[in-house]
Design goal:
This protein has 155 residues and is an all-alpha fold. The chain has helices at residues 2-7, 27-50, 54-64, 70-83, 92-112, 123-144. Helix content is 63%, strand content 0%. The chain is elongated.
Length: 155
């Protein structure tokens, strides 16, 4: 009897999931979580750069080469990456959210420079930021979008 019981394969039900196991992660969620972290890092880099005192900013600019407009290039690139993030989803509402965030960040970072020693808010910088966001949003559908999210985001 014991030998028969040991040799019999018993189909056991799956173990119960405890409340501490966390939510189930669908295949696309991992990529989306990574995109959320990247977006947070890009916004943090933008804020650090925008609130950098003029002396430090000018020193870094000179070290990188003063003949290239590095701060403008960095803002253009960061705003493009922020707007191109897959966290907004797809469709018209995604376009609106991405561009609303870009406008808010552009205006907020420029306004905050009023209180940073040696820095001044400039409308030209807002225009550069928004141009980067628009370009990032235009290239989003075909180039920057992760393959694992294609067709998985609701409109």
């Amino acid at each position: 009897v014991v030998g028969t019981l040991l040799s019999t394969r018993i189909a056991l039900p799956p173990p119960p999931v405890s409340d501490n196991a966390g939510p189930h992660i669908a295949p696309g969620d991992d990529v989306l979580n990574q995109a959320r972290w990247r977006l947070a890092v890009f916004v943090l880099l933008l804020i650090v750069g925008a609130l950098m005192p003029a002396g430090l900013k000018n020193g870094m600019h000179a070290a990188l080469g003063a003949d290239v407009p590095w701060p403008s290039f960095a803002h253009f690139l960061l705003f493009g990456l922020i707007a191109a993030s897959p966290v907004y989803g797809e469709g018209r509402s995604a376009e609106v959210w991405a561009l609303m965030l870009a406008v808010a960040l552009a205006l907020a970072t420029e306004a905050a420079q009023h209180w940073v020693p040696g820095r001044h808010p400039l409308w030209r910088d807002v225009a550069i930021d928004l141009a980067g966001a628009l370009l990032g949003r235009l290239v989003w559908p075909g180039w920057l979008r992760p393959r694992s999210l294609r067709g998985s985001c609701p409109p």
